[in-house]
Amino acid sequence: MCGIFGYLGTKNTATSMILDGLKALEYRGYDSWGVAIKKEDGTLFVQKHIGKIGNARIPSFHSHIGIGHTRWATHGGVTEANAHPHIDCTGKVAIVHNGIVENFEGLKLDLQNKGHRFSSETDSEVIVHLIEEIQKTQSDLTIVMQKLRSKISGMNALIAFFPEDESFYIIKNGSPIVVGSVDDDYFIASDASAILPYTNNVYFLEDNEMLHISQSGISLFDNLGAKKIAKFTKLSYSAKSAEKGEYKHYMIKEILEQPKVLKNIIDTQTHEIEIAADLIKHAYGTYLIGCGTASYACLAGTYLFSKIAKRHINFAIGSEFSYLIDFLKENSLVFALSQSGETIDTIASVKKAIKRKSKLLSLTNSEGSTLYRMSDTNLLLHAGTEKAVASTKAYTAQIVYLYLIAHQLADSLDDGKKHVTQAIHTIKNLIEQKSKIELLAKEIAKHKSIFILGRGVSYAAALESALKIKEVSYIHAEGFAAGELKHGVIALIEKETPVILFNPEDETYEDTLSAAHEVKARGAHVIGVSSKNDKVYDTFIEVKNCADATIIPNVVIAQLLGYYLALAKNLDPDMPRNLAKSVTVK
Ligand code: F6R
């Protein structure tokens, strides 16, 4: 949450690089944005705006150093004053911050009593006044920043910019931050994707580290202030996959990329799938965890492991797992799923599991991310950068991974690959006929609620589908286990209420069909998603049977429906209100 970008180097194009960096990071927060850039005449140019950065311009001037920020509000509403960067009373320090300063209230009161003038309601602003206050008795900036570190609590990542000194101090504890270096140019960002247009040579700061950057180079300090070596690594992915290209939105681009992403897993990840299966086989219990969409992939995983591999794999929501870990043992395996690898709720739970010495296996889409780095074994989805806030290709890639691991455990990997190949063909057919889903979206966009029903793994698909629809179209969508209908849910059904039914021809078929009749009898508009049509369906979407991999095309239908519902309602599917792509605060 919140995007931070900084540039310090030899080029005089800092303004455009910072703006481009913020645009690349906008998916992390888009309430407001701002920059602080040193002009050649020595003055500091500061500009802040409410809203998305979109095609914003800033006056063009030569500069070789500056910082920028795109915000997802935590403390303090969406106002220009609350936008970052924040500047101290003297105008000599500027900061951009991601995270929460948990003890800001006490610090603020104290600083106000000492005469500091605050211009925002944010927790972040205390940082800059605190730096100013410490500087009154200490001129060595490294010591100033070390003192600052010891005074603020919470999960934070920040850049402190000293324009006179032409240097940055970067602090990290919890929230992610990465530095890219090429020749004498340095780029700092919340996410490597914003740095990749310039270099793939990066260093991911670890918790409690502090990095100083100036024209004379970089110095890294540990939590006690001792110098250490920053070991840069070369990332293997490029900036190209993060471009929108000819597409109107990232969401549709990423939906349409799925056949290629899923095929890549079949073709290249066999060794990794074998490794994961082996870890599960030898673990004393495996616990799948993730948040949001990743949690629904985990839930689907429990069904797939049970049915295909005859194994009970536990599942918990990432933010809840912390309260469920007292039974973890040294030989327990925590299998964490996260597109970004930065979701704080998942990471916080994982840290507790590591304290209990459990092993960590992760499946992320972000090489070098926090979760990737802290894992004993890290697997990558290789799905290419996912920019739209609503996760699509990462979800289906997670399902394919879990599906193939389950088949590997059952010694039937070839069958698993065959089903996924069928699922890919089915997705391609659906994509060719996407105009039908667009028409359906226009028809049902006026409704306040949509319900989605399924049993077994289709129940997990129903939950994910509902999330996709509600987050981008703001229509109340609920996924339910079809069998639960009679236990209360059916009270919600009114005349014409759209009810989507995932009804693959598996062991759930007949019972799910009964649910269709039950909602139809109460006036619902029944949308059947199945390989077999039935007269109970008012609308039928054909999805060929691909064994248990049918969950994949089924969810793609909901992704397309969510996308077209957003368009029908004139909404921006890439940046839904109140959300940010990467949830790095609690
Ligand atoms: C929904 C969505 C979120 C994320 C969740 C976890 O479309 O994208 O629910 O799935 O915030 O994110 P990651 O997978 O990055 O841990």
TrEMBL record:
Enzyme category, top tier: transferase
Keyword Lyase tagged: no
Molecular function GO labels: carbohydrate derivative binding; glutamine-fructose-6-phosphate transaminase (isomerizing) activity
Signal peptide limits: none
Domain Glutamine amidotransferase type-2, residue spans: 2-216
Stated name of the protein: Glutamine--fructose-6-phosphate aminotransferase [isomerizing]
CDD domains recorded: GFAT (cd00714), SIS_GlmS_GlmD_1 (cd05008), SIS_GlmS_GlmD_2 (cd05009)
A UniProt-annotated Pfam family: SIS
UniProt cross-references to InterPro entries, sorted A to Z: GATase_2_dom, GFAT, GFAT_N, GlmS/AgaS_SIS, GlmS/FrlB_SIS, Ntn_hydrolases_N, SIS_dom, SIS_dom_sf
The UniProt record lists the keyword NAD: no
NCBIfam families on file: glmS, PRK00331.1
Database matches in PROSITE patterns: GATASE_TYPE_2, SIS
Alphabetical list of SUPFAM superfamilies matching this protein: N-terminal nucleophile aminohydrolases (Ntn hydrolases) (SSF56235), SIS domain (SSF53697)
EC identifiers of the protein: 2.6.1.16
Name of the encoding gene: glmS
UniProt domain SIS: residue ranges: 276-415, 440-576
Reactions mediated catalytically: D-fructose 6-phosphate + L-glutamine = D-glucosamine 6-phosphate + L-glutamate
Keyword terms of this UniProt record: Aminotransferase, Glutamine amidotransferase, Repeat, Transferase
GO biological process, one term: UDP-N-acetylglucosamine metabolic process
